[in-house]
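Technical annex, item 7. During the second reporting period the consortium partners agreed on a shared format for inverse folding records so that results from different sites could be compared directly. Each record opens with the tokenized structure and is followed by the designed sequence. A conforming record, contributed by the partner at site C, is shown below for reference.
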């Protein structure tokens, strides 16, 4: 009972914050298109979308990688923060979703900033490492079972000072549910532990919405 009350007051707080912001036609178009294509809308929470734009802009990131595109909601938020000439590489398992996301970013005037790579994200990350690619900003938001692998790749592909954001650290309640012991729940718990304790990172984990991990990759001298 206490839990339910706490959750509903949190939702009221989130709803209040949302009521302060004007409608965002580009992001509404993403939601509409997901609905029209019969896709489950699991886009990042609006407050975290705004945070992604802010973090990209404040950090001055020029090269971003997103893992999990869906309909392009987070892609729009990330690309909005980029300077002139900045670039977003977006990894997406499914061709139809990459096409949908590309269409939505193009409608939002951001099509020229994004490149989609379709298929298993881990394979693409390994290929990017072989190519010597480096990034300033990572948004991890695909299959939870690979979060620990994605985090390791992000640290390896990150420029000194790179920012790593990881969505859904609560896994819709599963992280804190002792009865949830599937691979996704176990991997998310491990991911959260690594975010908090890996000496190569400084970090925090935000508990609003479904939870968001934020980390900065330290430089070679670990500062
Ligand atoms: N970041 C998006 C939401 C992503 S939902 C947003 O906030 O707008 C998770 C996405 O990850 C889905 O589109 C799914 O197809 C993709 N995905 C799942 N497993 C994947 C994998 N192994 N490699 C790449 N993408 C994957
Ligand atoms: Mg997510």
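Designed sequence (site C submission):
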């Amino acid at each position: 009972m206490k839990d339910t009350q706490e959750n509903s007051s949190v939702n009221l707080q989130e709803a209040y914050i949302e009521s302060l912001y004007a409608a965002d036609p580009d992001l509404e178009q993403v939601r509409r298109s997901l609905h029209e294509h019969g896709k489950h809308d699991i886009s990042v929470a609006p407050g975290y979308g705004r945070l992604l734009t802010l973090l990209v802009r404040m950090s001055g990131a020029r090269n971003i990688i997103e893992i999990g595109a869906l309909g392009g909601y987070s892609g729009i938020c990330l690309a909005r923060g980029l300077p002139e000439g900045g670039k977003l590489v977006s990894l997406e398992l499914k061709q139809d979703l990459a096409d949908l996301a590309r269409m939505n970013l193009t409608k939002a005037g951001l099509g020229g900033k994004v490149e989609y790579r379709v298929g298993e994200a881990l394979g693409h990350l390994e290929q990017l490492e072989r190519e010597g690619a480096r990034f300033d900003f990572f948004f991890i938001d695909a299959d939870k079972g690979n979060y620990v692998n994605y985090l390791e790749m992000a640290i390896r592909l990150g420029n000194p000072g790179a920012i790593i954001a990881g969505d859904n650290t609560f896994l819709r309640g599963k992280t804190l549910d002792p009865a949830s012991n599937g691979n996704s729940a176990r991997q998310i718990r491990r991911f959260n532990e690594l975010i908090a304790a890996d000496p190569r990172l400084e970090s925090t984990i935000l508990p609003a919405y479904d939870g968001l991990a934020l980390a900065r990759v330290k430089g070679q001298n670990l500062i």
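Residues 42, 44, 141, 167-168 surround magnesium ion (ligand 2) (CB under 6 Å). Helices lie at 2-20, 25-36, 46-59, 73-80, 95-107, 121-130, 147-157, 183-197. All partners now use this format for quarterly exchanges.
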